[in-house]
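Reminder to self: tokens first, then the designed residues, so the page reads top to bottom the way the pipeline ran.
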């Protein structure tokens, strides 16, 4: 007997999950969430999952209810005798807390991994982790996808022979360098110093961007402080234009205002996180087909390495 596949969604990723299910060729599963007056909530599957491979789509950006809802759904599927439970986490929250960078702090990403495994997850599918080593926090398989599969098609359209790849900080140099090698372009790096989290004190450019069309590459855009400061700096250094490609559109606080007032020509993002508001400068590229294809390959025991265009 063939194993059934059911795709469900938490409340944070309903739109993306619906697109993934449609692309895969199934209807999104029925989940209801009962809310108590004090804010407590209880998700329940409104159809059988016994003996099924259950895929639960939920990005875990703040609030923490998004993560806890995913944990509750995993636990519910396990107690309902699902054959396998796969957490599809397009955006893996707390990924920036991947190590102790100062005394007396938690390693949040490891804690999330522990909770997912304790809840009963059999596999995790995610995209563009802030730090690759987070995969090692799990004792279950992790399929780490890259937005480069989607971004490269757009970059090839923009490639006029005058592009230069750029990293907004030293931490993103490896990622930007991979794009530069793939597209056979030069590389520039911004060196930044922070006063505190989400606040850049000073920034300088390493590399020649004069007369170039700059492409900034990053895994996420949060307050857009680094990104917009880098874009403005590149224009000051003689760049003709600056576009940015960021997988996760966190876009918190003054992000939208900063983007609108910056020298950025365009910001390309994916729909791993729903946009809070629209902007003429922001272009959203869907990851639905990519995730649905990976699900199909997993079910058919096929390789997914062809999707790792840049890793």
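Designed residues (311 positions):
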């Amino acid at each position: 007997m063939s194993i059934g596949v059911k795709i469900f969604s938490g409340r944070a990723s309903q739109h993306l999950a619906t697109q993934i299910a449609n692309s895969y060729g199934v209807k999104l599963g029925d989940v209801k969430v009962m809310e108590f007056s004090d804010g407590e909530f209880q998700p329940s599957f409104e159809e059988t999952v016994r003996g099924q491979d259950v895929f639960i789509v939920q990005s875990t950006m703040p609030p923490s209810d998004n993560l806890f809802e995913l944990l509750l759904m995993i636990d519910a599927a396990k107690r309902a005798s699902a054959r396998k439970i796969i957490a599809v986490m397009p955006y893996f929250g707390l990924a920036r807390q991947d190590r102790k960078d100062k005394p007396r702090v938690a390693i949040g990403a490891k804690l999330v991994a522990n909770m997912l495994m304790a809840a009963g997850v059999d596999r995790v599918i995610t995209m563009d982790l802030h730090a690759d080593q987070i995969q090692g926090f799990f004792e279950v398989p992790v399929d780490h996808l890259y937005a480069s599969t989607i971004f490269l098609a757009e970059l090839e359209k923009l490639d006029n022979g005058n592009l230069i790849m750029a990293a907004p900080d030293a931490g993103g140099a490896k990622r930007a360098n991979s794009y530069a090698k793939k597209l056979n372009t030069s590389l520039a790096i911004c060196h930044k110093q922070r006063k505190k989290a989400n606040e850049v004190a000073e920034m300088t450019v390493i590399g020649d961007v004069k007369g170039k069309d700059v492409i900034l590459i990053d895994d996420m855009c949060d307050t857009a402080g680094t990104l917009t400061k880098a874009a403005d700096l590149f224009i000051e250094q003689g760049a003709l234009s600056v576009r940015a490609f960021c997988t996760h559109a966190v876009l918190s606080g003054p992000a939208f205002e900063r983007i609108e007032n910056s020298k950025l020509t365009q910001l390309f993002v994916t729909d791993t996180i729903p946009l809070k508001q629209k902007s003429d400068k922001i272009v959203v590229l869907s990851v639905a087909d990519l995730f649905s294809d990976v699900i199909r390959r997993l079910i058919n025991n096929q390789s997914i390495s062809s999707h790792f265009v840049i890793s």
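The longest strand covers residues 186-196.
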